[in-house]
Design a protein that fits this description.
This protein is α+β, with helices and mostly antiparallel strands. It has a domain of 105 residues: Nucleoside diphosphate kinase-like domain (Alpha-Beta Plaits). 40% of the residues lie in helices and 13% in strands. It has a four-stranded antiparallel sheet with strand order 2-3-1-4. Bound molecules: uridine-5'-diphosphate (UDP).
Length: 151
């Protein structure tokens, strides 16, 4: 469905390394549509919700510290198959096993500082979008390029 949505977030390392524009460009260039975007410091409360499934993992305290170390860029992107394609564009969790051409494979080396988050299913996307954005922050608009991206 062309109205599928995913939650993509540039992590503090992506911001500090000046890769915000590059990461956004990849989604724009692919033909996906930006629906919402923020630039903010995350909070412990929001990260505990976002990473709920990892709260008891040994790496969680260190992940939390990293994610609070600088600004992040939470975004909502829309388009056909965007959840699966977004994950493919990110690469694997570990940048060292990520193919060149993916964001993590092009810019990352270590597991934690892997630059960007992307929802792993349509259900996770809905949950994550609701954590980071109010409904009123999701902008309705029709990109001119859609007529040239979709048949
Ligand atoms: N992470 C980590 N150490 C690990 C596994 C994960 O620091 O051993 C971090 C990493 O930044 C990852 C995030 O925790 O992106 C969430 O992990 P998940 O398994 O959900 O990976 P993702 O869906 O982001 O690829």
């Amino acid at each position: 469905m062309a109205d599928e949505r995913t939650f993509i977030m540039i992590k503090p390392d992506g911001v500090q390394r000046g890769l915000v524009g590059n990461i956004i460009s990849r989604f724009e260039n692919r033909g996906y549509q930006l629906i919402a975007m923020k630039f903010q410091l995350a909070t412990k409360q929001i990260l505990e919700k976002h990473y709920e499934e990892h709260i008891n993992r040994p790496f969680f305290p260190s992940l939390l510290k990293f994610m609070l170390s600088g600004p992040v860029v939470p975004m909502v992107w829309q388009g056909k198959d965007v959840v699966k394609q977004g994950r493919a564009m990110l690469g694997q969790t570990n940048p060292l096993t990520s193919a060149p051409g993916t964001i993590r494979g092009d810019f990352g080396i270590t597991m934690q500082k892997n630059l960007v988050h992307g929802s792993d299913s349509v259900e996770s996307a809905k949950r994550e979008i609701a954590i980071w954005f109010q409904d009123s922050e999701l902008t309705h608009w029709k990109p001119a390029q859609n007529a040239w991206v979709y048949e």
